[in-house]
Amino acid sequence: MSTTCLNQANTSSEQVIRRLYQVTNAHNEGFEAQILALLQMGLERFNLDIAILSKIQGNDYVVQYCVTPEAVELKAGDRFTLDTTYCGITCEAQAPVALEYIGEHDMYARHPAYKAFGLESYIGMPIRLNGELYGTLNFSSPAPYPRHFQEIDIDAVQLMASWIEVELIRRQQEEQLNKLNQKLKRLANYDSLTEIPNRRGMYKKLKKSMNLLSRTGGEGTLAIVDIDHFKKLNDTYGHQLGDKALVETAKQISNSLRDYDFVARLGGEEFLIWLPNSNLNGCAKVFSRVMKAIGSIELTEDPITVSIGAYYLGFNESSLPSDFEMLADKMIAIADKALYEAKETGRNKVVTRSGSIEDFSL
Ligand SMILES: Nc1nc2c(ncn2[C@@H]2O[C@H](COP(=O)(O)OP(=O)(O)OP(=O)(O)O)[C@@H](O)[C@H]2O)c(=O)[nH]1
Known about the structure:
The protein is an alpha+beta fold. The protein is 48% helix and 22% strand. It folds into two domains: 3-183, 2-Layer Sandwich (Beta-Lactamase), CATH 3.30.450; 199-360, Reverse transcriptase/Diguanylate cyclase domain (Alpha-Beta Plaits), CATH 3.30.70.270. The strands form two sheets. It has a six-stranded antiparallel beta sheet with strand order 3-2-1-6-5-4, with helices on both faces. The mean pLDDT is 91. Guanosine-5'-triphosphate binds next to strand 7, helix 7 and helix 8. It is an enzyme of class 2 (transferase).
């Protein structure tokens, strides 16, 4: 290479690196904007018309991002058979492919992609994620390339592809981390067997709802639903059927409640129901609906019955104590006493108590 050519190449590669640095550091622009800027940069660098980041799915070539002239109708999500694209050649070669005048090429002039799209020039690079083929980064044009693609051109595409690879992996990891965090959050607040809130989740939901009621001076009922003779069910039919009964009971209770009520699993065969804005009459209807729904569970010959201890509470317009869990536990203890009475006096029934938030001398 002559000194002039070498200088030109150096200047050109410096420009590529500088632009690439600018684009890839513009994190606040967002991934999509960065990719589109990168594709645009490639088009300007090579003086080509169509830029695509594709994903390979089986034998399909799927456009993920593209920059095209207005006349070319191409958009994200467009799908082609891989064998009918030049990227099929790139993927097979597992290496960069640069073609300048395809119509005059011995081999590729007969390629189905040439017949289908009539693109004369193409430079493409496979994108690999964790050792697996992800897709391609490619630039092309219906016009023949006026010069030969050089090593510096391949290096430029390689550099862009490398950034895309790193960024896609980072996004993949971020997504996995988010999913894991969501799963952990769910595990912390939900019961894994019945998939309804656990005790911890219950405190959170109850606090939110009671806060609202205490601001408006409303009313609400907290009830504990306990399956009757559950030990016997377990002992007779096994733990697995016992678990099934718990899942079905949770489902039937959920289905019997209004949107703003909720059910949580307190532990074992004990569930908590919270019914905001419900007086004792309204609650009685809900409880009879719940008992009927649970009675319809068909797991054994004997229908499942439950006992319910309920505590109706009126709120004045005051704020809740900072130790909300202690207040909730006191309310649960009162409902528990009512439940105990229901068990002692024959089961399959509801016993209610009523009071006021002021009883707790907040
Ligand atoms: N299958 C299953 N059983 C559980 C689970 N958690 C607790 N249990 C069982 O539930 C049973 C509860 O028994 P008890 O507290 O005596 O209550 P009960 O037999 O329903 O009697 P009453 O409440 O008085 O009607 C125990 O045998 C526990 O082992 C669970 O997650 N799955």
